[in-house]
């Protein structure tokens, strides 16, 4: 497995240099499990379930299958993604590639950390517009509600394992190349009787994160099975590493693609809450998927 990122992940130099002159190879979209209209209707159904009190939040994902005249090359793709999104954790193993901004859990000795993200907005090349988009996100009642649900659930799962657990007093903006997210960092120290838990075991206790499933987890998972009409494969699962001492770092497999010869299947999702608008949520999924789409359709990703 090849991993490249920040904050303790092993770092390898990108396998391609951005801007290498390579011929462009035609790539075409060949379909999604749900059309845009059907996916927006699924969002409306999820919203009605939330209004009825059956759940508070559910994350609905979409897929997009691409076909290229040449074989998609995982090594080139993960190298390009690591270069394009240096703030993210980039990964590649067994035909599964991506760059995720979301830290599920990091363990360093007795110290544990998580960085849940929920609530998203676009970026702009215009500094004034970009700041305005960020401020609107910080003050959005809908996005703050979604974010608080995610942080609260992770806090509930981590708190019993820790002697103390601290978090940021207010969400802050994690700005990536094409999108910005509301972020809150959780940091704690494991209880003595829990200090033997490895990073992998901690990831198992925290998965599925409400950032990719919902709140409460059981009805959210039922809604996902009913409404998405697709298999998620490895999308939204934990991806990372653990060493012999139990230390390690696990992200959530987002902004990713399953590669199989001439085809690539992309995934992205959006958190649905009571105030969600189907059109806006569809735009958010497209924005997130664009992080992978831009790399896969660039010269050098296949050949």
Features:
303 residues; Anthranilate synthase; 8-stranded antiparallel β-sheet; 6-stranded antiparallel β-sheet; 31% helix; disordered N terminus
Category by helix and strand content:
alpha+beta
Number of strands: 17
H/E topology pattern: EEHEHEEEEEHHEEEEHEHEEEEH
Query: How would you name the CATH homologous superfamily?
Result: Anthranilate synthase
Considering DSSP H and I runs of 4 or more, what fraction of the residues is helical? 25-40%
How is the quaternary structure best described?
single chain
Low-confidence stretches: 1-23
Number of helices: 7
CATH topology: Anthranilate synthase
The total domain count is: 1
Give the overall silhouette.
Answer: globular
Query: Residue-averaged pLDDT, rounded?
Result: 90
The largest β sheet comes out as:
8 strands, antiparallel
Top-tier CATH class: Alpha Beta
Gross CATH architecture: 4-Layer Sandwich
What is the strand content?
Answer: 25-35%
Distance between the termini: 21 Å
Task: Using the CA coordinates, give the radius of gyration.
Answer: 19 Å
Structure description:
- The protein is an alpha+beta fold.
- It has a single domain, classed as Anthranilate synthase (4-Layer Sandwich), CATH 3.60.120.10.
- The protein contains seven helices and 17 strands.
- It has helices spanning 36-51, 74-84, 127-138, 141-158, 199-206, 217-227, 278-296, and strands at residues 2-4, 27-31, 57-68, 89-93, 96-100, 103-108, 111-115, 117-122, 162-167, 172-175, 179-183, 186-190, 214-215, 238-242, 248-252, 256-260, 263-272.
- The strands form three sheets. Strands 1, 2, 3, 4, 5, 13, 16 and 17 form an eight-stranded antiparallel beta sheet that branches. The protein has a six-stranded antiparallel beta sheet with strand order 9-12-7-6-15-14, covered by helices on one side. The protein has a three-stranded antiparallel beta sheet with strand order 8-11-10.
- The protein is globular.
- The model is unreliable at 1-23 (pLDDT under 50).
